[in-house]
Design brief:
mainly alpha, elongated, about 5% strand, two-stranded antiparallel ribbon, about 230 residues, 8 helices
Length: about 230
């Protein structure tokens, strides 16, 4: 029988240390996912505000870039899963949370685009219309198209959900604070004119994801340099 090579105490300690370092590496996210969502959502929000305020159009629904962001998010999740040396089941759960979040954003956007048109059709069939009437008679009545009042407030509330879950699971304070601030912005948006909700939503995206993403990315790159 061949002699088995026994590990020395130092070699055992080195092995344990190496495994701990791998576990830490898998614990720290690369930050790319947060940067991705922070970028696309803030751009879509701010640009929507400017389009509505200054009455211009970019020629397409800017929120399609948020839908498109789901694809790289899936790719990022798969790559990070392959690169992690230590299996972390909570990471799979978080990936699912962010995937459902992306789908929910698309669903809300679909609701916002579809319901007013469907409602307008139903109103026309029933033979009545929505009208803006000025009580002081200073302006003539205006025909209104159906719309969802302050719907973007719900978007802001939704932004806080995956952020809070990630912050709690990963014990990452920037996301915890970001989620709390986002809930505060949601409450604020309920008392503002609808056009300002887009500005609050853009701010929520930066606070929830972009800034934490920058912090995560710096930590990840610093950790990678230590292992070179």
């Amino acid at each position: 029988m061949a002699d088995e090579k026994k590990m020395t105490e130092q070699e055992s300690l080195d092995l344990i240390t190496n495994m701990i370092q791998k576990a830490k590496s898998s614990y720290h996210e690369t930050g790319i996912g947060s940067l991705l969502w922070g970028s696309v959502v803030s751009i879509a929000s701010f640009l929507t505000y400017f389009q509505r305020t200054y009455e211009f159009s970019v020629g397409f629904d800017i929120w399609l870039i948020v839908l498109a962001a789901i694809i790289p998010q899936v790719i990022i999740s798969v790559r990070e899963k392959k690169s992690n040396q230590v299996k972390k089941y909570e990471d799979d759960a978080l990936n699912a949370v962010w995937l459902v979040f992306g789908i929910s954003i698309f669903a809300l956007n679909f609701y916002q685009k579809t319901i007013p048109e469907v409602t307008a059709g139903i109103i026309e069939q029933e033979g009545w219309q929505m009208t803006k009437h000025y009580l002081d008679g200073s302006k003539p009545d205006e025909i209104l198209k159906p719309f969802a009042p302050s719907l973007y407030s719900l978007f802001i509330m939704l932004y806080a959900f995956p952020t809070l879950v990630t912050g709690i699971v990963k014990k990452f304070k920037p996301m915890l604070y970001g989620a709390i601030i986002a809930y505060g912005l949601f409450i604020w948006s309920c008392f503002t004119r609808s056009e300002y909700d887009w500005l609050l939503g853009g701010a929520a995206a930066i606070i929830c994801w972009f800034i934490p993403g920058v912090i995560l990315r710096r930590k990840y790159l610093a950790q990678q340099q230590k292992h070179v």
